[in-house]
Specification:
Elements lengths: L4 E7 L10 H15 L6 E8 L1 H12 L7 E5 L7 E2 L6 E9 H11 L3 H16 L8 H17 L15
Parallel strand pairs: 1-2, 2-5
Antiparallel strand pairs: 3-5, 4-5
Length: 169
């Protein structure tokens, strides 16, 4: 991968305390996906933490689905062509919105750490921002799952792996 990656992270919820190291983890997830996809040039990604009510509203507004979900991706590119930030020259890949309430519940359900869940949701959404889709199932879904696991394994977050987060740098 060439170029710089800027990940803008915002916390717009008060339901879940964001654990130390999660912001660095998200940045590492974004970098891992871009490197795995051999992304060229600089990139910008926005990641926002919300609560279930906020993500339900977004899901209803943009997908006509009136329920909360774990994560939403809002790609800014079409077929690998992205808007460019005129100030930085970076390609703006899009927005990732994570329901921290949902992430906590799913981490409990799947028996892994909140860090692994947030890492998975970030990697999953990054692939969406780069044009991958699993909605139709089939080969595309299998390819997306393989890419998710490859990125997570590289980060030490593979299935069954443990991940230790030290304090953010």
């Amino acid at each position: 991968m060439t170029g710089k990656v800027k990940v803008i992270i915002s916390n717009n919820q008060n339901e879940v305390k964001i654990p130390t190291g999660v912001r660095m983890l998200i940045r590492r997830c974004c970098h891992a996906v871009l490197a795995g996809e051999k992304f060229e040039g600089s990139a910008e990604i926005s990641v926002t933490f919300v609560d279930d009510a906020q993500i339900q509203e977004l899901n209803r507004q943009y997908r006509n689905i009136d329920k909360s979900t774990d994560v939403l991706s809002f790609p800014l590119g079409i077929d690998g062509v992205y808007d460019v930030n005129n100030d930085t020259g970076a390609q703006m890949l899009g927005d990732i919105v994570i329901s921290m309430q949902h992430a906590v519940e799913q981490a409990k359900t799947y028996g892994h750490s909140l860090q692994r869940e947030v890492g998975f949701l970030t990697v999953h959404s990054m692939l969406h921002l780069l044009g991958y889709d699993h909605e139709a199932g089939g080969l595309e879904q299998v390819r997306m799952r393989e890419k998710e696991e490859a990125a997570l394994t590289q980060l030490g977050l593979g299935r069954g792996g443990s991940y230790y987060m030290d304090d953010e740098a």
